[in-house]
Amino acid sequence: AATGRGSAAAAGRMEEEDEDGGRGAAGSPAAASGRFVRCLYVVGFLVSGEARGGGSDGALPARPGSLYGIMQLFSSTFVGCWSDIVGRRYSLLACILLSALGYFLLGTSTTVFLFAISRVPVGIFKHTLSISKALLSDLVSERDRPLVMGRFNAASSVGFILGPVVGGYLTELEDGFYQTSFICASIFLLNAGLVWMLPWSEENTASREHQQGNKGTDSFSAKANHDLHSKPATNGAMTSDILFRSPWIQVATVLKRIKGIACSDLWDIFLVRLLMSVAILLYYSNFSLALEERFGVKPLFAGYLLSYSSALGVLAGCLLGPITRLYQHNTYRILLHSSTLTCTLILLYASALSIWMVILSSTFLAFSTTIGRTCIIDLELTIGGNEASGTLLGVGQSVTSVGRIIAPLLSGIAQEFSPCGPPSLGVGLALVAILIMNANKQKYCSHGSVKLKNQ
Questions:
Q1: pTM of the entire structure?
Q2: What are the phi and psi torsion angles at 448 (to 5°)?
Q3: Residue 154 maps to which CATH number?
Q4: CA dihedral 56, 57, 61, 63 (to 10 degrees)
Q5: Residue 115 falls within a domain, yes or no?
Q6: Residue 276: its pLDDT value, please?
Q7: 199: left (phi over 0), alpha (psi -120 to 50) or beta
Q8: Nearest-angstrom CA–CA distance, 14 and 12
Q9: In this structure, is residue 105 part of a structural domain?
Q10: How far apart are alpha carbons 206 and 194 in whole angstroms?
Q11: In a domain, 214, yes or no
């Protein structure tokens, strides 16, 4: 019931912002599917809430937990590309149902081996947020994409805030771990029902309008472009020929698309994403211990500060509309300025002489990181092309996963020198990212699409 009220409130807030924000999603190809987009906001809220609300990841043994992380690293690109081929509806349903199966197996597991088995479907297919973002990208124009993505991130962030609270309460009960797993699986099933009942006819209409509006700005070569538009799955009109074709043909198509991304010159976009991700992770690494050592505050205060930052992140997602209008929808400038601000705030934290400077840096960092995260995704889709949005978002997610692997290692090394070592290293990495953006300014500002080499 609480989840229902939260999702309804989130959807209501988005509707109010559509009215107050002037244009918002209105006036774009997505105007005809405003109800569909708002339903996706609710899906994002439920997906993030159920993923964190499971609360079971932290209770897993180390090896199954590591197995899950490794599978997430390699599967995000494949699943994202697969969604480009078979269509968003069926890929999203498959990911939700198989994730539900994983949590159900987790609730019935009694040994470490069964724990590990239960993590396989979740590790491979829990990419519902990425597919939802790709679907939103299909629906809206480039002009409105940062606004809609920001609102979607805000809705999902509410779930990330509430999920651990509810999951922590449930795990305190007798057999709470198993009950929480079953509840999480049940919410996944309910979410699958919501996705099935979405007004997909509106999605098909808006996707065709969006495709026509973006005609001539495709990222692939002429032959690849023809192949893409000859497949109805890329614009939402799913056919049984594509869905039920041989799995080996689907795998070959996925590998061909991934090779096209790997051979493109999008490396600088993904490198910027990696560097900024690691810089932010270094800021938060050993956050509680660093504050206790530097300023003598208790870990509880650090927890409150992190919750405060998460709440501000939700607000930042809702403010992307006015910000993009202020910058005249120049995503590159927003990303450059937000990254520069992030670098400055991490430096402020590393050199802070009082806890008030830490609070100040955390306050504005919540805004800069949220805005930067949304803008880097938008820049990936703008330069890489919207027809491969699932693949691009999957690769970006894999890049972020690599950052999560690298950051603890770098943090441990830097921590040996000083408690301020990790954030200081983060400042250096953020500076490199800013230099890369400046060096490729012409490509980012031209809004031309990068040619992906076709096999």
A1: 0.76
A2: -80, 155
A3: 1.20.1250.20
A4: 150
A5: yes
A6: 96
A7: beta
A8: 5
A9: yes
A10: 20
A11: no
313 SS3 class: helix
Instruction: Please provide residue 319's backbone torsions phi and psi, each rounded to the nearest 5 degrees.
Output: -90, 0
Judged by DSSP in three states, 165 sits in helix
Domain that holds residue 404: 34-55+62-200+249-449
Per-10-residue mean pLDDT, the chain, length 455 = 39 41 41 70 72 47 61 88 88 92 86 83 88 88 87 82 68 72 86 85 58 46 37 42 65 81 84 95 88 86 85 88 89 94 95 93 94 92 80 91 90 88 95 94 65 43
User: Which burial class, exposed, middle or buried, applies to 273 when counting CB atoms under 10 A from its CB (0-12, 13-18, 19+)?
Assistant: buried
* Domain count of the fold of the chain: 1
pLDDT tens per residue across span 367-395: 999 999 999 999 888 888 766 788 899 99
372 belongs to a structural domain: yes
How many whole angstroms separate alpha carbon 149 and alpha carbon 127?
16
Tell me how long the chain is: 455
115 is written with which tokens? 């724990």
Residue reference for tokens 């590393």: 350
Q: Cβ(341)–Cβ(371) under 8 Å?
A: no
C-alpha span between 118 and 113 (Å, rounded): 9
Give the pLDDT score at 275: 96
CA distance 91 to 131: 8
User: For residue 389, what pLDDT is reported?
Assistant: 86
